[in-house]
Amino acid sequence: MPETIVPMGLLCTGLLCLGLLVGSFLNVVIYRLPVMMETRWRRDCCELLEVEQEKQDAPLNLATPNSHCPHCKTPIKPWQNIPVISYLLLGGKCGHCATPISPRYPIIELVTGLMTLALAAFFEFSPALLGAVLLTWALIALTMIDVDHQLLPDDITLPLIWLGLLFNLQSTYVSLNDAVIGAMAGYLILWTIYQTFKLLTGKEGMGYGDFKLLAALGAWLGWQMLPEIILLSSLVGAISGIALMVIKRRGKEIPIPFGPYLAVAGWLALLLGDGTYGSVFAHFGIRLI
User: For the segment 203-216, what is each residue's pLDDT rounded down to a tens digit?
Assistant: First the structure.
């Protein structure tokens, strides 16, 4: 671990606290962004069909309205919105109506905090750490939205591509040349697989959001990491799919989102990859021919 100008204890504490706070915000993004997109789609459809749009409730965005209990609509007080701690103090229930609160919210906060903290073991206090933090947060949001809605919003994937290229202007992770090729190759690889599968089966095997997410990972990590990311995500996806069919008796015709597996593979490549094929697997003692 390289020496940093910031004491390690202070850096770790800051990253953990920041991650917990951002995790609370990501809960808002994960819930509200798909709703905002659906509202926008409905409005656009009504304008296209020249149909009068139904009256909407109060405008919904990432800032308003303030967080409130979905059951009794009571606004959440600031002391009730402390990541993880408030959930524990309230016993996992609304402080007004005692309706149970899903444990998913503190879990996402805690996972975001721990994943952000983990970055301190791999990056010194530098632009590379800042970029890794932003990429990690984006991957968490994309993972949960894809799990809920089988959707990878352009509002996140497209800025993520440009952000990766921006950080690599100074070769923060890879050279700009490798980043640009990575973005193009990432999109075209999955696009080609999609078109081939559709031609052979007449079915769509994945969504365009997956193409854009892999393009973003290519922009951040370079084209050299793409084979490893694809292989690792496919391996984890296949194992998870088989497990779901066996444990939950889930039919093979039910689609499984691929975005979370790409996100996990991309994050591991960010931490453990060094631009050479098989580097992530090597960290787990797996040799690739």
Answer: 887 889 999 999 99
What CA–CA distance (Å, rounded) separates 186 from 219?
A: 8
State yes or no: cis peptide before 159, omega within 30 of 0: no
Residue among 278, 277, 271, 19 at smallest CA distance from 128: 271
Query: What letter represents residue 36's amino acid?
Result: M
Place of tokens 């559709």: 198
C-alpha to C-alpha distance for 172 and 165, rounded to whole angstroms: 10
Which class for 78: exposed (0-12), middle (13-18), buried (19 or more C-beta within 10 A)?
exposed
CA distance 24 to 37: 20
The answer to whether the CB of 262 falls within 8 A of the CB of 210 is: yes
pTM of the model: 0.89
Give how far Cα 72 sits from Cα of 5, 84, 88, Å. Answer: 49, 21, 20
Encode pLDDT of 29-38 as tens digits: 999 999 999 9
